[in-house]
Amino acid sequence: MFRFYVNEDAVYDNRATITGSDVNHIRNVLRMKSGDRIIVNTGAGTDYYCRIDQVNNDEILLEVESSRPCMAELPVKLYLFQALPKQDKMEFIIQKAVELGVFEVIPVITKRCVVKLDDKKRQEKKIGRWQSIAEAAAKQSARGIIPEVKQPMRFADAIKYAGNLSYNMIPFEHANGMEYSRQIMNQAVESDSVGIFIGPEGGFEDEEIEAAKNAGINVISLGNRILRTETAGMCVLSILMFQISK
Fold it and tell me: Which terminus of the chain is more solvent-facing, meaning fewer CB atoms within 10 Å of its CB: N or C?
């Protein structure tokens, strides 16, 4: 069934209402009609299985037939702290991270980041674009929530933000020992929240790694190959998702 996200107040008394751009998509693209069934979600983790009651010009009226928790969500919240990459790589990273089950994406400004988002209007436009990509990926992968893309943070602020999480890790090309990495991964999946720090194209500077260590972030290896920034995060998320999923 097709899935749509609505505001929390759009579901009430076994009824639901869809408004906005999805109305045109349902009416004119999918050509759905009364009696057809869809799923709506408020982004809070519950799927509402609905039957279309009326298809109007500006709204779709639904009857809620049943509801249940979305099975697509992981029991561990994964936070991706992604250093800003060049070009449009961030869009790809957000899309794939959402498909893999990430809870939040936090863009991070590190010393070797080439991309600058100093202009406030440009930054707001980027965040809006990234959030729309997260929503589309959540819809495509049947997520029960729409992961939030946070405002970009300086590396020091990102470390402080990660201090609220149960477990944190940072892959680094000069780290040694895959056995230690396996131990960290195994321990992480037993927690309730995990932060993953991924560096930019030029990698982290040594002082950034030291700052992470001093904050209790585990420095791990991903093997003997140096992975691209758009690959490293997906590698860690895939491993964690596989171990967490029931």
Answer: C
